[in-house]
Amino acid sequence: MKFCSRRKLCRLCGSRKLTSLGTLAVFPAHAGEGPDPEGTIPSWPVEWSLCGACHHLQNTQIIQPEHLYRTSPYRSRTIPGRAAYLNRTAEIITGLPAFPKAGKVIEVGANDGQLLELLGTRERQVIGVDPSPVLPQLPEAAKPLWLDDVFEAKAAASIRRQHGMVDAIVAIGTFSRIDNLHAFLAATRYVLKEGGVFVFDIPNLASLVAHNRLDWVSHEILSFPTIGILQQFFDQNLMRLVQVLPEAGTPDNLLCVARRKEAGTEAETSVQAAIQQEQQRQDKELQSITEWVTRLPTQGERARAFLAAAREKHGTLGGIGLDHGSWNVLHVLGITPALVDVLFDDNPAIQAGGPGSGLAWPVHRLGDLAKHKPGAVVLLNQDLKLDPALNAYREKGGKVIVLFPEPAYAGK
Questions:
Q1: What pLDDT score was predicted for residue 133?
Q2: Which of 360, 358, 326 is nearest to 345 (CA)?
Q3: What is the pTM assigned to this prediction?
Q4: pLDDT score at 407
Q5: Domains in the chain, start-ordered, CATH in brackets?
Q6: 348 and 408 in contact (C-beta within 8 Å)?
Q7: What is the band of 38 on the pLDDT scale with cuts at 50, 70, 90?
């Protein structure tokens, strides 16, 4: 069965004017699987292409979501950075004047149900949709509904048939992972009430390039849209982008609000302000993206040389990755067990792999870091800088090296 295919049309405007910026990395579908020198694990490329018509940056190598997500369950609660982001985002979403105080809410990409639990109340019923087999472990009082599927026509029809139309749809960390966005918005329109609201986030492309976020080089991240491109795309699909909340997310994300066109809601000044900022930096940003992609091989060489020197100096060298994205960095930079002895991760899904799972390294709990012989560990995730486990390791005499995404490793 063919799990991966190459997209030939722009995901947003449908143009054939896709120019490949090159293959950024080749690695297994699941980020928790390390480099595979024997070639026993199926691997696929991550290829970024730029649309010559609308300038949409996108991943054009597509792994079927049924394969990518059903065999790689996510658990947001085990990832501190992700859990904190969802907590903040839930507060912002529920505080929006347009967000319903009561009614039905769909969360697309519900994961292990953390955001479902935060959005649900006695008056607000939540419905989770996710292709992963992970079922939410929530308090009995929350009682979320759950649909194990991709959110397209079939799922939308099932929800509307069983529960009627909904007051809001939320997609946090999901929109950029969807290949067929036209089908997704059609499903959104089909099940969302005329006065309903759609809340989602997208990657902040300018910030990702500026801060060298290599962990966004992933099979899962398919789109890096700008607000200007999104506004046109939503208009074409009878939706309207009405609000952009850049201060609401993290530096890597922009929180957005959209409605059905029939609602008659005009876009707030935040949308036009975001578009104007994009237009002012467009040419420079397109050049930065191209340069950033072409620098990746050099970054890998620099990182590997640095790690080899660090290991020689400190003896034991470990690596820390606390979410799936951080593990991608190993592949992008070509980091192998010859450079890093052991990995630390608090994601049970990755730890459960263990021997025989395709992992090239021993994997230990991050909390056990202080039990290991002091040497040096390499920080792969910026969210971990203040983690208590790292502080305990430092107190024991261990050295913590920040490899990523510090400017020193931006290939400059």
A1: 65
A2: 326
A3: 0.87
A4: 43
A5: 1-297 (3.40.50.150), 298-409 (3.40.50.720)
A6: no
A7: low
